[in-house]
Amino acid sequence: MSARGDQLVNAALVPTGLDTHGILAPPPGVAGWYDERGWPKPGFPGASILAGHINTRRNGPDTFAHLPQVRAGAVVTVRYSSGDEVDFVVTRSAPVPKTQVPKDDSIWDAANRRPLLRLITCDPTTPVKGGHYVGTWVVWASPPQ
Question: pTM for this one?
Answer without folding.
Answer: 0.90
